[in-house]
Amino acid sequence: MPRNAPLPVDPIAEAKRQWIAHGWEDSAGGMTLVTSVMRAHQLLLARIDATLKPFGLSFARYEMLRLLAFTRQGRMPMASAIARLQVHPTSVTNTVDRLVRDELAEREPHPVDGRAAMLVITDAGRDLVERATAALNTNVFESPGLDADETAEVVRLIARLRKGAGDFTDPRPQPEPL
């Protein structure tokens, strides 16, 4: 249930105090980091959900449409979508099923692999994702709650955390042209 007023005390700071009081000082910083990131995720997702609700989109459906709209021809193999979105294949399948049901995307046979499917954004899907992107840009992304330097620093730190967890590697340098 959403709150209308801020809490008088930061519950995460209180949790850290309790962690230390219970002898878990070595873990207190990590617990505070994890809990803070999770809470920030909840706050940002609430803003995103509120912005996407008038468009009848969840963030998962929005991401899939945006991914398809970014491609040159508005299509990509299902396996590529799964890899890029970094979610379980069942989640992608369910998201695509709903997009197809709402005529925002279509499935087509893969031109080479008869077992695979191509995902294709429809004109209605492209129109909807463009309008939803404009709303997200205005209501969330242009003012995420930090200034530009702070935003860049948080992104840099989280990228270090993600890379350290094996989420991605640095791209290999391209060979010099012959």
Automatic annotation (TrEMBL):
Residues 30-163 form the HTH marR-type domain. GO terms for molecular function: DNA binding; DNA-binding transcription factor activity. Keywords: DNA-binding. GO terms for biological process: response to stress. PANTHER family: TRANSCRIPTIONAL REGULATOR, MARR FAMILY (PTHR33164), TRANSCRIPTIONAL REPRESSOR MPRA (PTHR33164:SF101). This is DNA-binding MarR family transcriptional regulator. The lineage of its organism: Bacteria, Bacillati, Actinomycetota, Actinomycetes, Micrococcales.
